[in-house]
Specification:
InterPro entries: DNA_methylase_N6_adenine_CS, HemK-like, N5-glutamine_MTase, PrmC_N, RF_methyltr_PrmC, SAM-dependent_MTases_sf, Small_mtfrase_dom. Methylates the class 1 translation termination release factors RF1/PrfA and RF2/PrfB on the glutamine residue of the universally conserved GGQ motif. Belongs to the protein N5-glutamine methyltransferase family. PrmC subfamily. It is an enzyme of class 2 (transferase). The chain folds into 2 domains: 5-68; 78-283, Rossmann fold, CATH 3.40.50. It contains 11 helices and 9 strands. The chain is α/β, with parallel strands linked by helices. Helix 1 (5-18) packs across helix 2 and helix 2 crosses helix 4 (53-67). The chain is elongated and about 70 Å long. The N and C termini lie far apart (78 Å).
């Protein structure tokens, strides 16, 4: 029996809700749009029209894969971050709403800095650096990433966001000293921060699909915070700021790590759920 696009979407949403999915409305809409090859606006416009059997079958196959754990962002190849539609692949982490706090804090700071250079270290899809560039027109942003496959996604997203004039991507290892990258007013970083022993306990949608190198923060989860605070401080301009996203329960230790490397005026910022999510500090200079 033929179903309308609206009924197909509603049925997908019902099944997602029954499965305990956190955002059933969003995910049902994205899966239906992708299966039908329609934008959100086209889906709303054509809601009363009948979907072909092929489209319905494709939507239900996508739903089945998702219910087995495969994230919607990887199924459809894109996701939205800070109102920017971005290309996504299995080689990068899926941008999360929690990470928008990191972008927002950096944007607030940079709006008063005039023309400046910003580094997004461990850039992944480039989501944070691209959000910064989109909302601070005076900023020139470098997306630094070790994975060649992730760099391809960065380049795609630079073009997709129309930011080729102010954003570039470079291959760089966050665990090594920066080489010939110049000086930055601000470094933003969402590093790997899951303790190695905890990786196998993660939800299947993360453990089996997202890139391990973007998750593994070493034995205690703090490996990259230590290395970046020590090695990359030399890439900051005097008085520049370093912004980190942190995992649950990590903020106080990251604050201590940054303080030990000469950062002052260190602040902890909570996300919308009240969880400490961002730690940032200013590079102190000797008088």
């Amino acid at each position: 029996m033929a179903v309308t696009y609206n009924n197909l979407y509603l049925d997908l949403r019902r099944q997602l809700k029954a499965a305990g999915v956190e955002m059933p409305t969003l995910e049902a809409r994205e899966l239906t749009c992708f299966a039908a090859g329609k934008t959100r606006e086209e889906l709303y416009r054509d809601g009363a029209l009948y979907a072909s059997p092929a489209i319905e079958q494709r939507a239900r196959e996508l739903l089945e894969r998702h219910l087995k754990g495969e994230p919607v962002a990887y199924l459809i190849g894109e996701w939205e971050f800070y109102a920017l539609p971005l290309d996504i692949s299995r080689h990068v982490l899926i941008p999360r709403t929690d990470t928008e706090v990191l972008a927002s804090e950096a944007i607030s700071y940079l709006k008063d800095q005039g023309e400046c250079r910003v580094l997004d270290l461990c850039a992944g899809s480039g989501c944070v650096g691209l959000a910064v560039a989109a909302h601070t027109p005076q900023a020139h942003v470098v997306l630094a990433e070790l994975s060649e496959e992730a760099l391809k996604v960065c380049r795609q997203n630079i073009r997709r966001c129309g930011l080729s004039g102010r954003v570039v991507s470079v291959r760089a290892d966050a665990a090594s000293k920066p080489v010939s990258m110049g000086e930055f007013r601000c470094i933003v970083c969402n590093p790997p921060y899951i303790p190695t022993a905890d990786l196998d306990t993660l939800d299947v949608s993360v453990r089996d699909y997202e890139p391990r190198m973007a998750l593994d923060g070493g034995p205690d989860g703090y490996r990259f915070y230590r290395l970046i605070s020590e090695l990359w401080r030399q890439a900051l301009a005097p008085g520049g700021r370093l912004y980190f996203e942190v995992g649950v329960g990590q903020a106080d230790e990251v604050l201590r790590i940054m303080r030990s490397q000469g950062f002052g005026d260190i602040q902890i910022v909570r996300d919308t759920a009240g969880i400490p999510r961002v730690v940032y500090g200013t590079l102190c200079t000797e008088i």
